Every structure is written in C-alpha cells, then in structure tokens.
Amino acid sequence: MNCGGLDCESSTRNPTKVIFCFGGLLTALICYGVFQERIMTTPYGAEKEMFQATLLLVCYNRLSTVLVSASFVVFFGESLKPVGPLRNYAAVSFANIAATACQFEALKYVSFLVQTLVKTGKLFPVMIWGTIMLKKKYKFRDYAAAVAILLGVTIFLLTGEVTARSQRIVPTLRYGYASTGALLLILHLGFDGFASTFQDKLFHSHQMSSFQQSLHVTLWSSLLSFLGLLLKGELLPAVSFVLRHPDILVDMTLLSIAATSSQMLISYTIKSYGAILFATVQTTRQFLSILISCILFKHAVTIGQAFGTALVFAALMYRAYKHEGRTSKDGFKDSEAQIDKCREDEARREGKAYEEGDTGASQASLKNPASPQSDARLHFTLAATINSHGDHRRDVESILEESSIPTK
Predict the structure, then answer these.
(1) Alpha carbons 113 and 165: distance in angstroms, whole number
(2) Average pLDDT in the 154-177 region?
(3) Residue 259 main-chain phi, psi, to 5 deg
(4) Cα–Cα distance between 32 and 68 in angstroms, integer?
(5) Distance between CA atoms of 224 and 94, rounded to whole angstroms?
(6) How many whole angstroms separate alpha carbon 60 and alpha carbon 54?
(7) First to last CA, the chain
(8) Exposed, middle or buried: residue 230 (CB in 10 Å: 0-12, 13-18, 19+)?
(9) Strands (E), 266-325
(10) Distance CA 283, CA 288 (A)
C-alpha cells in the first residue's frame, strides 16, 4: 500500500523511521518544556526582570500555528472558510487560551516538576468531559490508573520543595503561595479537558480536515489572546520588555518551533505507528523532562518525591500497556488497518464534495485515489491530535479520545 509516496507496510517495519519518529518527537517535546521553563522562570538582564505577559506568549505561539495550518490547507487545496459554527471555534479557542495561560502562570508559583506531574492527571478531566459530552464509558483499570496518578502527585507535593524556581533565585520576588499554582494547574486541567473533548466533538460533527480546524481555532485564539493583552493593559509593557531584552524573542521563537514541530510529528507518528508509540514517547518525555529540568535548572528532589514520581510513571506505563492490548484486540494496532480507515473517511469526504458539485481537487482525487495530493493528505488524517495546545504533552488517553481510533 502506498501512502503519500511512502510504502505504509514497510514504514511500520523500517527502524529508521521509528527512530526518526521516536527521537524527533521526543526532542521536540523536551525542547518545548525546556524553553517554557526558561522563559517563565529565568530572569532577563542585569536587573533580573521576569517575563510576565503570558498572553503574549500564547498569542505568539498561536500565530505560528496559524501560518503552518494555513500553509497546509492551501497546499492540500482545501477551503480556507470555516466549516463549523464560529461560536464553536470561539468556545474551543477560549478554553484553549485559558488552559495554556493557566499552565504558564502556574510556573510563577510552583516548579516545572510539579507542573509536569500534575498535568499527567489530565486523565481525570478527560474522562469526566468524555462521560458528560460524548457519553463514553471507561473501564475499572482507567479509574485505577487515574487514582494511582493522583496518589503519586499528592505524595510528590507533600514530601518536598514545590515552590517556583524564580522565587528561589530571586529572593525579593514573591508572587504568592504554591497553593495558587496548584489551583491554576487544576483550572488548566479542566479547561484543557473541555477543549480536547469539545474539539473532538467539533471534528466529528462537521466534515473538516484537522488543518482546517487547527487554522480557525488558532486564528480565534490569536485574536482572543491579543484582545486579552489590550484589555489587561499588558501589550505595551510586554513589547517594551521584548525591546529591552531581545534575547527572549529567540526563546519565544524556539518555543513556537518546538511546539509546531511536535504537532507535525504527533500526526505522522500516530498515522504511521498508532497511538501506542506516541504514548511511549509521551511517558518517556515526561520522565526525561523532569530529569533534564533537575540538571539544567538545579531542582532538588527528595526520596518521597522520587517515589511519587515513580508511582505516576508506573501508572502511565500500565495504561499504555493495557491500551496496547485492547488496541490489538480491536484490530487497530497495525498501521495498515488505521490507514484503511483513513482512506474510507477520506473517500466519504471526497464523495460528499463531489455530490455537492466540487469538480476541483476532490473530483480529481476520486478519479485517481492514489494521487499524490490525496495520499499526502492521509499523512494528516489522524492529525485531530494537532489542536493548538501550547504544550502538546498528552498521554495516550487524550490521543485516543481526540483521534479517529476507537477506544472501545
């Protein structure tokens, strides 16, 4: 089977491509975490000024995603017009901005280690929103893993230092209590879970590609975050900070590149090898991010915190292992089965476009289903996982929730 110029069967057996996906995605996600922590916790200049305007960071990140998504929409000959109701895009965008802003703001109060571990608990809000909005049912092992993750995070929080790095290296800097950071992370999980679930619902309710969805969600996010900067009076101070410390612009650009690269690699990895490889990368990345953060930013970890961390990652690996068995039983472990389903979905979309009188790229794809344009689009059919989240650090449950791979 050919898929965008690549032999899909050989792709699943090619160790070079596996290494590329695993190594590339791991590198991109780790770099994202490093630059995020650097921007939010490292003082700039001799005056040791801290960057405050998190909405500027969100806006800059989303604008880069808009450019990439628009480029792919044009490349694939898709419509730039929104397919779904504008209010739905706006709702996802608002939740997305709130989730990302809470995530960045939390680093003013708690350490990156706390942020990373707490975010592994996103399974809870994903399951809650999935039950409410999508009527999904979860197995006992899912709840058991979620409880184990919660227990591990609680042990970590109670057995060692959790305050933000910036407050340790700048003694005069006092944002507030660590409990404020914990509250922000809880809000992040809630908004992120809503955005993921609602975006999944939007994607399946309307005939749109993931890039069309990403384009309009991030376009709304850019607009709303810019309006937020204006309403909060942070735009001019933020621009002034960048002009005083131009090196932060390099960090912001590298952060956006890492985010966009991880988005592209996520879609390609899931398309080629399924969600389980990504889940493995995700868990490995979270562990290495904590390790690298301890080395680069000199975080101290107690024995109790090490035990809590081990418990969290043991639960994550357990879930990945169980999902692999369930995926295999349902017949979706093999890449070819996923690609066949992608082709069916693509054919339905193209057939609908043809019936509505679209004689352009859609009709050409029907006449030649193996055309480069049609096949290339399959590389990104599972890119519903590309959703404008500033940190693209998800566990496998959210990937299975947001992609076309069945979770039953």
Answers:
(1) 10
(2) 77
(3) -65, -45
(4) 17
(5) 7
(6) 10
(7) 27
(8) exposed
(9) none
(10) 9
What is the token pair recorded at 347? Answer: 């054919």
User: At 196, is the pLDDT very low, low, confident or very high (cuts 50, 70, 90)?
Assistant: confident
Distance (Å, whole) CA 383 – CA 178: 36
Compute CA distances 315 → 123, 159, 322, whole Å. 11, 19, 11
391: tokens are 């940190």
- What is the per-residue pLDDT across 199-223, written as a single tens digit (0 to 9) for each? 777 767 777 777 888 889 889 999 9
Say whether pTM exceeds 0.85: no
Three-state DSSP class for residue 371: coil
d(CA 324, CA 398): 15
**Can you give the pLDDT at residue 376?**
47
Would you call 6 helix, strand, or coil by DSSP?
Answer: strand
In the block, tokens 């599972």 appear at: 382
H/E stretch holding 3:
strand 2-3
State how far the Cα of 339 lies from the Cα of 382, in Å rounded to an integer: 9
| Cβ neighbours of residue 126 closer than 8 Å, sequence gap 6 or more | 193, 196, 197, 397, 398, 401
DSSP, collapsed to helix, strand or coil, labels residue 7 as strand
At 280, list the tokens: 């493995």
Question: Rounded to 5 degrees, what are φ and ψ at 293?
Answer: -65, -40
| Pair of tokens at residue 226 | 């810019």
Q: Helices 112-119 and 178-205 sit at what angle, rounded to 10 degrees? A: 40
> Which H or E run contains 2?
strand 2-3
Nearest-angstrom CA–CA distance, 133 and 135 = 6
Residue type, 386: I
Question: What whole-number distance in Å separates Cα of residue 272 and Cα of residue 289?
Answer: 25
**Residue 323 · residue 400 · CB < 8 Å:** yes
Neighbouring C-beta atoms of residue 324, cutoff 10 Å: 18
Query: Mean pLDDT, the chain, as a whole number?
Result: 77
